[in-house]
Amino acid sequence: MRIELDIKLGFKNVMIRPKRSTLKSRADVSLERTFKFLHAKKGWTGIPVMAANMDTTGTFEMATALAEHKMFTAIHKHYSIEQWKAFLDAAEESITEHIAVSTGTGSADMEKLNELMNQFPQLRFICIDVANGYSEHFVKFVKKVREKYPDKVIIAGNVVTGEMVEELLLAGADIIKVGIGPGSVCTTRLKTGVGFPQLSAIIECADAAHGLGGQIISDGGCKSPGDVAKAFGGGADFVMLGGMFSGHKESGGELVEEDGEKFKTFYGMSSETAMEKYSGGVAEYRASEGKTVKVPYRGPVEDTVQDILGGVRSTCTYVGAKKLKELTKRTTFIRVQEQLNEMFS
Ligand code: 5GP
């Protein structure tokens, strides 16, 4: 047994130190980024905030709304080929720049992925997503997908440490998804004791990825626009959100009304709710590692988008970053013991 004694931090343990700035207003800040990828040939330009590939947030409706802002949606893996066809037929051509196809690593997953890519070769992004990205099987699967699809952008995860980021990039991934246990409806840390504070995971993994010419997505744990800004400040190239995009018109989940108030259900993808929906109950060998919650209904996602982008723009003005790309360079975190004044919350 070994203990690492240097402290690892989450979003709530830090704030961003304000810096002298020549920017006049947050309207002067550009949140667009352009990336070249390690393996895939064609690059990407857009606002690197994305909806999680959960069936409650990675919906076609969400993708349509977010693409208006050049934001991204990792579409969940439970849509049928027919549903994909109907969506792509009706959507604008540029939508393929702003969505990823998600897949697990089973043989049925591979078959479905192949079918989708054959039928819709315009799809450019493949998100290979497992709860624990540390297995040999996962690395082999990433290699297989890279061999078969040399031109596609491959997202792979989830991991939280530098050496695994490197291994997955070398196996063929372009972008690594980072986060184990920080999610709003995740119970992994409770059930297994495993995890890594998200901000420190970002800092470590961004350093490993950028050294090799790859990118990372910070996945999970953001509760506010300030947390999104901290994730970018720590070095995340993309930030993926579940809870912050839940409860909207474009979100999945059941709309329920109680005492005149509307709610939408939101649940983890390995919660009992999701497992019952897709695999006929919780498999005996694994604990359910997600929970189900009711979120107050928030209407169209547009207001939330404005709130997030406005917040991050404002962060950039506080530290003098004219572009989102400069935010990490201009970020100094200060460790804190307090965050918000909770007098009226
Ligand atoms: P949030 O933005 O809600 O904090 O985090 C979203 C992320 O939580 C997802 O992108 C995914 O990585 C993770 N997640 C979603 N469902 C589950 C689940 O059932 N269990 C675990 N451990 N993580 C989940």
TrEMBL record:
Its EC number is 1.7.1.7. Residues 9-337 form the IMP dehydrogenase/GMP reductase domain. The active site is at C186 (thioimidate intermediate). GO terms for cellular component: GMP reductase complex. GO terms for biological process: purine nucleotide metabolic process. InterPro entries: Aldolase_TIM, GMP_reductase, GMPR, IMP_DH/GMP_Rdtase_CS, IMP_DH_GMPRt. It catalyses: IMP + NH4(+) + NADP(+) = GMP + NADPH + 2 H(+). GO terms for molecular function: GMP reductase activity; metal ion binding. NADP(+) binds at residues 108-131, 216-239. K(+) binds at G181, G183. PROSITE patterns: IMP_DH_GMP_RED. It holds the Pfam family IMPDH. Keywords: Metal-binding, NADP, Oxidoreductase, Potassium. Gene3D superfamilies: Aldolase class I (3.20.20.70). PANTHER family: GMP REDUCTASE (PTHR43170:SF5). Catalyzes the irreversible NADPH-dependent deamination of GMP to IMP. It functions in the conversion of nucleobase, nucleoside and nucleotide derivatives of G to A nucleotides, and in maintaining the intracellular balance of A and G nucleotides. Belongs to the IMPDH/GMPR family. GuaC type 1 subfamily. This is GMP reductase. The lineage of its organism: Bacteria, Pseudomonadati, Balneolota, Balneolia, Balneolales.
